[in-house]
Amino acid sequence: MKKVFLLLAVSTAIITACETTTNKTEGTEGAKTDTTMVEDKEERNKKVVMASMEAMIAKNVDEAFKDVAPDAVDYNDGSMPAIKGKDSIMNMVKQWVNAFPDNKGQDIKYVADGDWVMVWGEWSGTFKNDFMGMKATNKSYKLKDVDIFKLNDAGQITEHHNIQSPNTMMGQVGMTPPKK
Fold first, then answer.
1. Is residue 89 part of a domain?
2. Which long-range contacts (CB under 8 A, 24 or more apart) does 57-66 make?
3. Is 9 part of a structural domain of the chain?
4. Are 119 and 162 a contacting pair, CB within 8 Å?
5. What is the pTM of this model?
6. Quick check: helix, strand or coil at residue 158?
7. Residue 164 belongs to what domain range?
8. What is the CATH number of the domain that holds 69?
């Protein structure tokens, strides 16, 4: 009888130990899953922005905007009114690409943090065609800038901000704002 109780006690201890280990493992895996999900989302967001930037550098505006939400807003550096709506932003960018056909980015770095992706790089181009009523000057610009993108849960770009004031670039290429 003692052997039966001893066997029962040992079996119970083993089963309890296994359940405790399983619960701890499941809890740890759950925590890893949450962390992994955040990392996966950040990596996805970074890839979306990288693809968009690469398409912009290749002058393929339609491809650059394929993952932009219809209600996206471009805040620029905040010194000018925000541009609202994917179509309005695309129209302005197409005009920009036409005005600065040799626009390029170099030494580009990407950093993702949750819903936000930051892109740091050095940009240059030559003002070769008129832009929004401003006459081309054939002068070049070169500057460093950070573009900041916010993405939604579906992986679409919903906001754009940048650090560099457009006045810096405008001054380098001899642009004067259009008269009202």
1. yes
2. 57/103, 57/104, 57/105, 59/97, 59/101, 61/90, 61/93, 61/94, 61/97, 62/90, 64/93, 65/89, 65/90, 65/93
3. no
4. no
5. 0.77
6. strand
7. 39-173
8. 3.10.450.50
